Amino acid sequence: MYIGRFAPTPSGPLHFGSIITALASYLDAKQNNGQWKVRIDDIDSPRIVEGAESLILKNLESLGLFWDDKISRQSENIQEYKNILEMLKGKNLTYNCNCSRKQIALSNQSDLNEPIYNNHCRGMQHPLSNKSAIRLIADYKSMQFIDRTQGPQSTDINNSAGDFIIKRSDQLYAYQLAVVIDDQLQSVTNIVRGTDLLSSTIKQYYINNLLNFPEKTYMHIPIATINNRKLSKGNGDKVNNNNFSLVLIEGLKFLKQKIEKNIEDASPREILKYAVKNWDTIPLQQIKDIELNPNQRVIADNAHT
Ligand code: GLU
Ligand code: ZN
Question: Which atom of ligand 1 has the smallest separation from the CA of 6?
Fold first, then answer.
């Protein structure tokens, strides 16, 4: 059984980019007669905005994107993160790290956005303080998975991010650890999301294997940009149009789906029914991002600044 999901962080209302992720994950799940679940990624408290969750859910409903099962929230899974962290600690797969961002940046050998950690604190046995981060020993040589649209993805320890953080120095569980556990708790089989998360997928793939969870299938779809900037809820980007059919049609155009003229004025329900039937992921292969066209810019408010 295919189980897909959409996992927004409630850091603001949905923007056009996140609607595209919601739409693609929905269409893929429904075309495969699967379930489409919604999870609220609410543990990164510095990014959470009050009221955003209910705006996001209302938005999904207006677009006709109704979810299966009850909504789940990361905040319900904290005990599970804790148990798994203790288990990894018990197997000596973690260590405490007090390196500052500055130290990590200075030791960085890579020209990628994300610095590569040089495993400086591994073996140092730093005592745990309430300012230390906890890293997972990531001793993988070469790992590979096939992304459905982006093709084979591989890395080895020399071009991965080194030992990575699973509990942050502000004592919050890191996204990389949480997402693997969350997906497993929801029995997710297929992950469809934006290419901005492609580079961290190998870490999640590694954790998923380490925990002996069943393998997930990944598909990373292009992200929407304006002036080469990715849209973001935290930046105040939002959808400013209440014509939900139009928003769906522009989303489908962004996803390079074929659209027949007579469907353009249909209700969201009918548009989705048509789109599920005709969902085609081939045109999305190997595309990492797409600049919005003028119509789409009008829908994505604030994004033209
Ligand atoms: N909560 C993450 C975000 O809003 C997405 C997590 C995921 O899809 O793995 O960017
Ligand atoms: Zn360190």
Answer: 8
The two three-digit tokens of residue 125, written as one number: 């046995």
* Distance (Å) from CA 155 to ligand 1 centroid: 22
Nearest Cα to Cα of residue 5 among 170, 208, 218, 152:
218
Ligand 1 lined by 249 (C-beta under 6 Å):
no
Is the CB of residue 24 below 6 angstroms from any atom belonging to ligand 1?
no
Domains identified in the chain and CATH numbers:
3-75+222-291 (3.40.50.620), 78-221 (3.40.50.620)
Q: For residue 23, what are its two tokens? A: 């739409």
**Distance between CA 136 and CA 122 in Å, rounded?**
10
d(CA 98, CA 132): 5
Which pLDDT tens digit goes with each residue over 64-118?
999 999 999 999 999 999 999 999 999 999 999 999 887 777 776 655 556 678 8
Residues of the chain with pLDDT under 50: none
Most informative mutation of 177, 193, 205, 220 for ligand 1 (most atoms within 8 A of CB): 193
Backbone angles phi, psi at 215, to 5 degrees: -65, 145
